[in-house]
Each structure stands twice: as C-alpha cells, then as structure tokens.
Amino acid sequence: MKLQFWYDFASTYSYLAAARIETLAELAGVTVEWRPFLLGPIFAAQGWKDSPFNLYPVKGEHMWRDLGRSCDELGLPLKRPGVFPRNSILAARVALVAAEEGWCPSFSRAVFHENFAQDRDIASPEVMGGIVEALGQPGAAVLARATSDEIKGRLRKVTEEAMKLGIFGAPSFTVGNELFWGNDRLEQALRWAAR
Amino acid sequence: MKLQFWYDFASTYSYLAAARIETLAELAGVTVEWRPFLLGPIFAAQGWKDSPFNLYPVKGEHMWRDLGRSCDELGLPLKRPGVFPRNSILAARVALVAAEEGWCPSFSRAVFHENFAQDRDIASPEVMGGIVEALGQPGAAVLARATSDEIKGRLRKVTEEAMKLGIFGAPSFTVGNELFWGNDRLEQALRWAAR
User: Phi and psi (nearest 5°) for A32?
Assistant: First the structure.
C-alpha cells in the first residue's frame, strides 16, 4: 500500500525523516508520496502562535540536544538555524510544483539541507531559485508558477486535507486513514503499509 | 554507566518503557535505577493543569491509537483506562518504599498493569495493598510507611530533582546530566550509557 509522507520544511524531525524514508521504503517495498504542507495553520488552530519548542523552552532545549544526538548517529550534518522556525511557505509552494514535475524528493532534501545543515533562509527566493537551478530546473519559471494563485490555493487545500486526517505535527505518515506521528514512527508506518 | 529511568504511573508511554527496559538494559550491560516521580507539578510549571493529551484532543486521539498499535507489536495488553490520567501520588510513594527495599521494578510493572491493562484505580489504597501483598510484602505496613511525612517529602524532592535535570515528560532517561525523553529514546539512552 502507498504511504503518504507529510512534512513541513521548518520541522526539525521532518529533516530526519526526509533523509531516511527512501531507503527504508525501498527495503519495505512501499511507495511513498511526498506531501509538503504547512504546520503553522494547524498550530494556530491549537492556539499556538509559535513552535511548541519555543513556547516550552525546556522541551525546546531537549529537542535541539536530541536532534544533535540523532544526527550524529545517522551521520547527518546539523547546524542549528539562526531563525527557528523558518518561514516555509515559499519552499512548500515550490515543492508542490516539484511534485507535479517529479523532482519533489530531491528538492525537499535540498531544502532541508539548506535550513538545517547550512543555516540559510529558505524563505528567500534567491535560495529557492538556487536549489531549483542546481536540480537542472528553470529557477525563474518555477518560482513564478510557485507563487501563482493556483499553487497558493493548492497549498491551502493540502493543509486542510492534513488537518482533516487528524495531523497535528510533522513529520506524519498516513496509510489510508491510519495516522502515524513523528520520525520515530516511520518504521512502524512502513510495516503497516507493507502488510 | 548507570541509567536512571524516570517514570510516572499515570503516563502511558512509561508503561511501555517499564515493560521493555530490563531486557534491553541487560543486553546492553547497563544498570538501571528506577526513579518514580510526579509529572503533575512539572506540567503545572508549564501552565498545564491536565495532561497535554487531554488539553490537545487531536494529539490525545493519536496517542491512544499509537499506544494500541505499539502494544500490539510488543504483545502487551492494553485496556484504555476509564480515567486518564489517574492520580499516581500514592503509587509513587509506595514505589519509593519499594525502592528502599529492592522490589521497585516488579511493583512498578504491576502498577502499570493495573492501570493500563486492567483499568483499575491505582489511587486506591486497596488496589495498592493488593499489589504489595501479591509481591509477598506486608500491605498495611508498607502503606503506612508510604504515607509517612518522610516518604511524602522524599517524593517532593525527587520531583524537584527531575525538574532540575530538565525533565518535562515521562518516561525520561538520564545518564549523568544527559537527558533522553520518551520511550522511543530508550535504546539510544542505553547506547549512551554503555559507551
């Protein structure tokens, strides 16, 4: 069965899941659909105007330490972003264009790398354009399409869809209506999809 | 190195950790110290007067589903408690007595079983007394000691110690000052302790 991978480019643990999912899914024989969405409106619906890791500093402090330990174990580079959470709207819009055209996974991994390994501003059109061009795509044309009303509306609809599925954090994985929350549930979600 | 296992008897994921920790620690060659504490005062310090799983129902709904799937995979029985979270103060006090006397792990697993597999009220002296007696200990004497000023004060101190270590949820694991939060980090915490 197909697994949907829901992620926000500002989400730290989505970075880990994006780095891990393709190899694990291939081993499990599961097809993955990459579903970029926005966590901000979902947090707002819970009454949070910021990341819970900022609202609850003790929890946030542990998160950065935990992320560092997990990146060490995975051999993934990590440089704590100077701004957290970064505005991920433009990156999510470009990812929807990338999904139409079949280059969403490599684009997404590159965005996570810029945010969490390079501490670059993923809200910047220049940074986004650079990633798009590095993937051999036309930067200006892709950015123009990403900021069209059609793509803006699609991102709103995707985020509404996430909310209807009960998604409240990122990364999340769905197999039909079955919801798995968190990078730590990736393996279990793949087992569910494979059975 | 020694690993400290911090848990609250009302905490769902502490039930899983309590069921898993001894076998995994033995395989890792790590000594475990069982540290019952109270999450309530720590939640209160974050401004929460209830479990976050009740305060954020969408998150709570996922938690029960996730717990069910994880219990299925582990072969652990689960019956959703009629009251959540249950008042865990008496059980934590008895656990401190048990820790003095060397029967804390088996007592703790029995309390988790009553709460999460039998849906019995772990705040009840009768239920606590029954568990204590079933372990071959004198119920009335243990309960009298558990409700002494000395043990009450000790539980307050343990909870302050947890807060000082940066603990904000349960289960947590500490190796020296290194903090690992959540049942999902048990294996990583053991690797840290073993290295």
Answer: -110, 135
